[in-house]
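Fill in residues.
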């Protein structure tokens, strides 16, 4: 009875072993990797179908042969040294290998894991290896690295600030130009809050705009100003777009082009459009705009507004006798002389060739007349061309606003009449004209 049970157990054990062997072989054959085993001399003792297909051989043709009989390795001395580490030192080695396929001469890349095989006593009897073909993966990785390197070169050399900022206000990317503006390395930008890199007021202003873009999902386009690490105010034309990352978090991507020179040019053109080129004073057009605004303000708050009109006496004779450069010197000297006596809110303008106007907010007519007389007397002292042996004088007409004035032009016309009255009375004098006159 015991003998029959023992035989049955032995039979089941043998069956289990055969099933295990068959199952192991099937797993090795179908696992999608190159699986092989060698003895201590590097001769094949096993190769799965993927290895055989790669070599273009049958199992019988492979067994007992070495790697070198079929496959040529790039840097073969390194491969042999690795195999010695496995077969002699008993190490488990995982590394990348590049093999030349014999049938096509193609170089392919593998990730190989090699470990020693041991007998029951622990002695090394050979090596088993599993290799995965990562050629395509490697190609894609190399391509991605090249593209990333190319993109980094482009982004660092493009004439714009390029950055990504998360909804936590931290920078997730910044190109070199962003780092230059903040005066820190790129690594010191990424991961930091915007308020840690720029003045709080500016950071909060930009963040309000970023929040609106994140909320609406629409891109924003605007002109922005930022003070750089050297304390210079730079101007940028910024395009900011919302972005949803792979993990679902939101961010904004900004592309800001430096338009400082264009901004300065626009300001210079605007300044030229409202400024007299010779004297640097407001020109007639700008003066009229300022004067009308002051007129409306004076009416709203019921405050006085006075005007002084000035005309250089015998200016045509100066140009005719001494030339236009001399005339220009007269106008420039007169400008400097008068400016010294004016308040910060007074508006001084050149309204014609040798004609000037001074707008005096919150000033009654007696005070305007007193100022005009003081200026007239002062001009006789400071406006002189000694090298040409000549003195310069000017005529003044002064007036002030009245309730019946409907626009500034009425005040301007009245001051002009007062000026011509001063010229008619012999020049180099002040004439005041009230609204009733």
């Amino acid at each position: 009875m015991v003998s029959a049970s023992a035989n049955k157990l032995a039979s089941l054990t043998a069956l289990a072993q055969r099933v295990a062997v068959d199952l192991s072989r099937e797993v090795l054959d179908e696992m999608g990797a190159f699986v092989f085993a060698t003895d201590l001399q590097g001769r094949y003792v096993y190769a799965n179908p993927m290895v055989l297909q790669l070599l273009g051989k049958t199992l019988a043709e492979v067994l007992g042969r070495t790697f070198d009989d079929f496959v040529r390795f790039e840097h073969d001395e390194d491969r042999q040294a690795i195999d010695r580490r496995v077969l002699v030192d008993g190490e488990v080695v995982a590394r990348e290998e590049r093999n030349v396929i014999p049938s096509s001469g193609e170089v392919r890349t593998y990730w190989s894991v090699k470990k020693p095989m041991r007998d029951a006593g622990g002695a090394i009897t050979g090596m088993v290896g599993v290799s995965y073909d990562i050629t395509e993966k490697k190609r894609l990785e190399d391509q991605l690295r090249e593209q990333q390197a190319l993109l980094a070169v482009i982004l660092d050399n493009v004439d714009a600030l390029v950055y990504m900022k998360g909804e936590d206000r931290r920078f997730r990317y910044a190109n070199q130009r962003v780092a230059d503006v903040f005066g820190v390395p790129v690594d010191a930008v990424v991961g930091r809050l915007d308020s840690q890199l720029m003045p709080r007021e500016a950071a909060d202003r930009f963040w309000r705009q970023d929040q609106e873009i994140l909320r609406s999902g629409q891109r924003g386009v605007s002109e922005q100003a930022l003070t750089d690490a050297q304390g210079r105010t730079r101007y940028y034309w910024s395009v900011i777009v919302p972005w949803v990352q792979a993990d679902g978090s939101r961010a904004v991507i900004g592309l800001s082009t430096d338009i400082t020179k264009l901004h300065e040019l626009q300001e210079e053109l605007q300044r030229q459009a409202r400024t007299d080129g010779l004297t640097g004073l407001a020109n007639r057009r700008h003066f009229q705009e300022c004067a009308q605004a002051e007129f409306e303000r004076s009416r709203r708050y019921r405050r006085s507004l006075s005007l002084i009109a000035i005309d250089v006496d015998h200016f045509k004779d100066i140009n005719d006798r001494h030339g236009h450069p001399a005339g220009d010197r007269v106008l420039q000297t007169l400008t400097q002389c008068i400016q010294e006596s004016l308040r910060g809110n007074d508006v001084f303008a050149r309204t014609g060739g040798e004609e000037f106007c001074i707008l005096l907010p919150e000033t009654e007519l007696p005070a305007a007349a007193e100022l005009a007389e003081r200026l007239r007397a002062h001009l006789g002292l400071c406006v002189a061309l000694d090298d040409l042996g000549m003195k310069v004088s000017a005529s003044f007409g002064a007036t002030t606003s009245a309730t019946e004035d409907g626009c500034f032009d009425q005040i301007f016309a009245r001051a002009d009449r007062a000026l011509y009255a001063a010229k008619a009375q012999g020049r180099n004098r002040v004439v005041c004209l009230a609204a009733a006159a």
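The radius of gyration is 46 Å.
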